[in-house]
Each structure stands twice: as C-alpha cells, then as structure tokens.
Amino acid sequence: MTPHLLLFIMLPILTGLLLYIIKHPMIKAIAVITEVVLLTMTFWYVLTIGEHSMMTLLVNVPLPFGMALRIDRLSATMLLLNNFLFLCMIVYSLKRPYMNRLFIFLFLSLQGMINALFLSTDFFNVYILIEVATIAVSILIMYKKDSQSMYDGMIYLLVNMVAMGFFLLGIGYLYKTFGVLDFVTIENLIPHLENKRVLVLPFSFLITGLSLKAALMPLFSWLPKAHGTASAPAVVSAILSGIFVKVGIYLLIRMIGIFSFAIDLQDFFLFLGFLTALSGFMFAMAQSDIKLILAYHTVSQIGLILIGISGIRDQNNFGGIYHILSHGVFKSLFFLVSGILVQHYKTRKIKNMTGLWQTSKHVSIVLIFSILSITGAPLFSGGYSKYFISYGNESELLKWLFVVINAGTMASFIKFFRVIFTKPLEQAHKMQIDINQKIVISIMAAVCFLLGFAGDLVTKVVHHQPYTYDAVSQLSKLPIYLFSYLISYLVFRFILENSKALKFLKGIELSFNSINLAIVSFFFVTLAYLTITF
Amino acid sequence: MIKEIINGENISIILFFIGVYGVCARRNIFKTIMGLSIMQAGLILFFLSINTSENAVPPIGPEIMNAISVSDPVPQALMITAVVVGISTTAVSLTMFISLYHKYGTTNWNKVKKKRGELD
Q1: A102 CB-near residues (< 8 Å, 6+ apart)
Q2: Are strands A68-71 and A54-57 parallel, antiparallel or unpaired?
Q3: Bridge partners of A289?
Q4: DSSP alpha helices (H): ranges in A310-426?
C-alpha cells in the first residue's frame, strides 16, 4: 500500500496542533513517533520511486485546472533530508526549556510546509507556502524576545516579503502568457510558444525572488542575521541552514528545468556561484562570533551547490544535489555543537572557547568529524560531493578558483581546531550534556562519515546514478588534502589573520534600504543580461 | 490614446514600483511597511486586470448563459488568498514594529542598526 503524499504535509501540522491543545508531560513522545513515521515513509518512497515520478491529484479534476502533489527523485531526496533533520532536532531538544507547546506547534508546522514545498507542482501554492513559512520562521528567530532578535526577525520578514512580491509579479506575467499555473503544463506549453521573448520578464522576476531565498551573492545580507542570531535556539538555526535555505536552491533547480527549453542561464549562474562561494568564506574568516562564522559559511556552500547544479556535465549536477544532502547534515551538526559550546562557555566569541578536548572528548570528536566534512576531507561527505562538483574541469581558471575556495574554507575553520586543541584557561569542569543530545550528535557525525565512506552506495540507492568514487581513490587524495591544509594554515596564520582587509570585511553590514536596493539592482541586471543574450 | 495607456495593468505596475521605491528609499520603518502594502495592492490589481475585456460578465449568476465572454475566475480566487496572506503579514510586521519601537525607541532603520551593532 502506498502512503498518501498528503500525509507528509498534514501529519506534522496536525500533530503540532494536537500537542498545542493537550497538556500532558509525556505528550512529547507523540512528536517523536510522528517523526519516525514520517522518516519511514520517506525511506519507502526513496526506495520505490526509481526513475519515474508519481502524481497524486488533490481534487478530482485533471491537472491544468486542479491541484496535485508530485514526487520524483529530486523531491524524494529533499524530503529525506528534511524529515531526517527534523527527527534529529526533535529528539535533540526533548529536554530543553524552550521546548514548550508553542514552539512545537511552530516547528512541526514548518516541517509540514517545507515538505509541501518539495511536493508542490503549482506556482501559486509555492508562493503561499513560502509566505506562511516565512512568518513561522521569523517568529522562531525572535523566540527568546531579546533586543537583538527584534531587528533580526524584522529584517528577515520584510526583506523576504519584498522578494516574494517580485516572485508574485512573475507568476502574474506567467499566468497572463499561459493561463495556467502548474509546473507540468507550463513546461509542456513553452516549446509551442511563438515569441519566446515574453518569458524574459517573468523569468527575471521569479529568479530575483528565488535568488534572495537561496541567498546568492548580492542578496545574502539577511542570512547571517537570521541564521546567526543569538536569540534563536540552536535547533532553529540548524533547520534554517540545513534545509530551509535549500528550498530556494530546490526551486531554482525546478525553474531552470521548466524554462530550459527557452532560457539558458548556465554561465550567469556559474558566475554567481563562484562569486557567492568566494565572498561567503571571506566574510566568514573575518567573523569572531561562532554562529556568524557558520552562517557565512552557509553562503559559501550555497555558492558551491550552485556551481554544481549549473555545471556542464551530469556529474557536476549530481555533485550539486549530493552537496545539498551532505551540507544539510554537517551544517546542522555544526549548529548543534555550537549551541552546546555557547551554553558551556557562556560566550559566543570563539576566541574565549578553549580546551574542548579536556572538557569533553565526545563533543571534540563530533566537531572534528564535521570540520573534516566541510573542508572536504577524503572519506567524509563534503569530500565526496566536492569531487563531483569539480569533476572534469578543464579550464585553468576554474581549477584555481576551486583551490582558492577550498583553501578558504580550510583557513576559516582553523579557529575551530583552536577551540579543541588549545589549553584550557582555568580548571576545566565537565560538560553537562543530556543523553539524547549525545545520541543525536553521534548519529549525525556517523552520517557525515557514511555519506563519504559509503557514498557509492548512497549514490546508487538514493540518487540512482552510476557514478562511483570509492574509498580507495578517496584515500589517495589524502596527501593533497593535508598539504593544502598546511598551506592554508600558514597563509592564514601569517598573512591574513591580523590583516586590515579582514577587519574591513567585518565592518561591512548592509542596511535595510541597501538590501532592497540590491534586490532591485539584481532584478534589472538579470533582465538586462537576458534581454541582451536572448 | 491616453485612455489606452491608463489601464489596470500599467497602473498596477506603477503602484508596485512606488512601493519598491518606498522600501528602498525611506528610512522610517513604518513607511517601509506602508510601501510593502502598496506593493501588495499593486500586485492584486495586476492579477485582477490581466486578461480582462470590457464586456465580460462576472462568472456567477444567470447572465452567464447568454454572455459573449465571461471574466476569468481563477485570478480572483487566487487574490482572495493573497489578500488574506498580505493582511496577516502586515499585521505580524506591525506587531514586530511595536515591540521593536519599545526596545530601541526609534523608527529609523539606520539608528536601529547602529544600536543593534552596539549590543553584540
């Protein structure tokens, strides 16, 4: 029997409502059970979906007029990541004080809406879901209600609303041209369009809205504030960086697919991807706040994903999608560990965190696993996906750019190694971690390792791709990895660390008006580029 | 000539970009929320005025039987949803604005940003 696709959306939202109404100390167990059921369902779909896609009509009307949910390999992969992360987060925060009824309701509704975004086949549904999810997220950002959070949440909400306004106008133009709003029909109608230039304007509007959601280069200023805010619990930051920002990337992939017959923006996105990746790690290097370092790194990794999905070869595209998976896991793990560190050291400055190895060996090992993953070490998830993203590159310039991006990532995580291996300032007292937190971070660290070590298996089962990069050939990259880490350490230690350029970067922060100006300029640049190249 | 230019579609795009000007150029938080509302009003007008003709009848009631053209009901249905979402987002942002004003004591984006920077 096939589980109905609607369950992915309704089950978490209804559970959240139920938990909001009923007061009972053991009620949180229901949330965990729901998450387990959802993850099992996702596994079932991932294993059975294969090459084809499956469509479920929501009303008894065929598609151009009705509504439908559709699952294919890409959305099944995204669902797997989403439901896995939410299970981890719910178990992680079972005993935390912030885990009250309102939080559970908002959190589980967010899960339902993200699931719905991955299953949706209709432009307008996507718009509504993003708007509602944005409101839920901005309330979660301001959850502890301190002074900083008001500004962070407000910037997040208003900037995203402006971008979604652009998105809605694009939908309007599409409706004017086609008279329908679902992905499938529009994709089929595009080849029959006589004058394909009419697509330029709606496409630029849509891309502007989605690029802000995905935090591409000029439009990422809201992301560090939202993801790195002090007031949100670590699980919220983990979900935002792990999966919610990927919604934008996922929709970009869909848009590129739908419009691929008429509009080709590969070079444009490749350029934007490199720009995003480079600027992301440069900003990250300049920060001293642990959560901000991680938030800026999300920007950099989003750039890498974009490079992958706009690459020429199929391997590159596969690498981009694989990196969504691996980045989702290791970045969430990073945020959870940073939450533990902030709670233990009672500071957010990474310089004041010392002697983690003496304090807790368990957390140290987990942190090392995630650092190895993000820097692309052999046998770890990041290394596996980065190999495919840069696969078959012949241009010298691109090769060097990849080296610089990788070295930059390595250099900015030297600060984390210092947290582990420096001597503790005072007598180290043991770290207090609940057993459920320990289990969750260990499982996630193991997944980071498995996604690299057993990457070929995951590729075959989840992605149904024939590409291989086995453990032995991964290990042969180890000397290169160690050598480049040494070089980047030396460069960081003796040239960059106290340089004026980093101090300058740290001071850059766009105001609300400048962010909006960036959105408008991005729109006009995209429009001009499309008009010229069409 | 002028009558042809002044139609719902053009007016709605002008309204939309007036709203965009509001969020780009005004430093007052309250005015940016107003700018957003103007953008939404422009969007709603845009959806309602695309693909309309002068002699179309509403898609409901007995006249529909002998009418030559009937106006499209889909954008109207969509816009009811968009109005509801727009109202709730405006309400949420106004609520946030009130508590932000209580915390920072100013309505200027740049001053809020400066005070936010001092808190870190």
Answers
A1: A20
A2: antiparallel
A3: A349
A4: 314-345, 356-359, 361-374, 381-389, 396-412, 414-421
Q: How far apart are CA A101 and CA A22, in angstroms?
A: 9
Which of A135, A151, A161 shows the shortest C-beta gap to B36?
A161
How far is the CA of A459 from the CAs of A44, A301, A312, A322, A369, in angstroms? 16, 20, 19, 8, 21
B-chain residues near A157 (CB < 8 A)? 89, 92-93, 96
* Range of the structural domain that residue A295 is part of: 270-497
pLDDT digits (tens, 9 = 90+) for A46-79: 988 877 888 888 888 887 888 889 998 999 999 9
Q: Could you tell me which chain B residue has the CA closest to the CA of A164? A: B40
Q: Is B101 on the interface with A (CB under 8 A)?
A: no
Phi-psi region of B105 (alpha: psi -120 to 50; beta: other; left: phi over 0): left
Amino acid identity for residue A262 in this structure: A
Q: What percent of chain A has pLDDT over 90?
A: 45
Question: Cβ(A145)–Cβ(A231) under 8 Å?
Answer: yes
- A237: nearest Cα among A250, A221, A226: A226
* Residue A448: inside a domain: yes
Residue at A298 is within a domain: yes
**CA A533 to each of CA A171, A503, A523: distance values in angstroms, whole numbers, following the listed order:** 23, 39, 15
CB within 8 Å: A172 and B43: yes
Instruction: Supply angle C-alpha A201, B19, B45, rounded to 5.
Output: 65
Residue B51 pLDDT class (50, 70, 90 cuts): confident
- In angstroms, the separation between the Cα of residue B57 and the nearest Cα of chain A is 18
Copy the structure tokens of residue A268. 């444009």
Amino acid A437 reads: Q
Burial class of residue A459 in the structure, from the number of CB atoms within 10 Å of its CB (0-12 exposed, 13-18 middle, 19+ buried): buried
Closest CA to B97 of B89, B22, A163, B82: B89
- What b/e string do you get for A120-136 counting C-beta neighbours within 10 Å, with b at 16 or more? bbbbbbbbbbbbbbbbb
Question: What is the CA angle A89-A90-A95, rounded to 5?
Answer: 110
Chain A / chain B CB contacts < 8 angstroms? 104
Is residue A503 situated within a structural domain? no
- Express the helix, strand and coil content of chain A in percent, nearest 5 each: 75, 0, 20
What residue spans define the domains of chain B? Answer: 2-119
Is A135 in CB contact (< 8 Å) with chain B? yes
Residue A1 confidence (pLDDT): 61
DSSP state of B108: B
Q: CB–CB of A355/A428 below 8 Å?
A: yes
Please tell me if residue A505 touches chain B, with a CB cutoff of 8 Å. Answer: no
Closest partner residue to A175 (CB to CB) among B50, B89, B113 is: B50
Number of domains in chain A: 1
Whole-prediction pTM value? 0.94
Would A15 be classed as within a structural domain? no
**CA of B68 vs chain A CAs: smallest distance (Å):** 19
User: Which has the closest alpha carbon to A227: A323, A146, A297, A126?
Assistant: A297
Where does B2-119 sit in CATH, by number?
1.10.287.3510
- Residue among A217, A209, A215 nearest A228 (CA): A215
pLDDT of residue B117: 79
Q: Determine whether the interchain pair A157/B104 forms a contact, defined as Cβ–Cβ distance below 8 Å.
A: no
pLDDT per residue over A489-515, tens digit each? 888 888 877 788 888 888 788 889 999
Contact B20 A516 (CB under 8 A): yes
Give the per-residue pLDDT at A428.
Answer: 65
